[in-house]
């Protein structure tokens, strides 16, 4: 379980309320996190899909990823924040958290993002045991830029549906990811054993 209290306090009323889809990705800028596939996806989106991307995190691929964004012609739509201790404040301007990881443990980013009521788009490895595709978030195969692009286009074109999914994700996070829910599960196990 995680301490969801600070994330559950954040309002989700402005999520997907603007014409521009405000995307964010949060995590180390390393191969494991699959950022290159997200950049390639964004580079293929049709012009009518309005988006921005905020990148939170740092790592050995920061410069190569920034160069890749330049070569794809999308650099002007991306803000690179580096490591931030102000994520709770940053969520005020985020609609969707994208985690295109190639492999992942139990993703704290996904649990916290769902707790804020933001829509999550996660690769299969990042979604395991956390995100139910089409119910509490959107799940795509890893290393699949075309699937990521399709998911982001769907967010732009089907905002009402995506808002419902984001809201369901928040309820799911509260019921399953909180420290209180975790303790209750452990207590239930002990009760079964006694």
Please outline the helices and strands.
Layout: H1 5-8, E1 21-26, H2 35-44, E2 51-56, H3 62-72, E3 78-82, H4 87-90, E4 96-99, H5 108-116, E5 119-123, H6 124-127, E6 138-140, H7 145-157, H8 159-176, H9 179-193
Helix pairs in contact: 2-3, 2-7, 5-8
Strand adjacency order, main sheet: 3-2-1-4-5-6
Calculate the terminal CA-CA distance, rounded to whole Å: 23 Å
Beta-strand percent range: 5-15%
Q: Label the overall shape.
A: globular
For the sheet with most strands, the description reads: 6 strands, parallel
Counting DSSP H or I runs of 4 or more residues, the number of helices is: 9
Radius of gyration equals: 17 Å
Oligomer: single chain
Helicity range of the residues?
A: 40-55%
Tell me about this structure.
Helices cover about 45% and strands about 15% of the residues. The longest helix has 18 residues, at about 160-175. By secondary structure, the protein is α/β, with parallel strands linked by helices. The model has no long low-confidence stretch (mean pLDDT about 95). Strand 2 (about 50-55), helix 3 (about 60-70) and strand 3 form a beta-alpha-beta unit. Helix 2 (about 35-45) runs parallel beside helix 3, helix 2 (about 35-45) crosses helix 7 and helix 5 packs across helix 8. The protein has a six-stranded parallel beta sheet, with helices on both faces. The protein has helices at about 5-10, 35-45, 60-70, 85-90, 110-115, 125, 145-155, 160-175, 180-194; strands spanning about 20-25, 50-55, 80, 95-100, 120-125, 140.
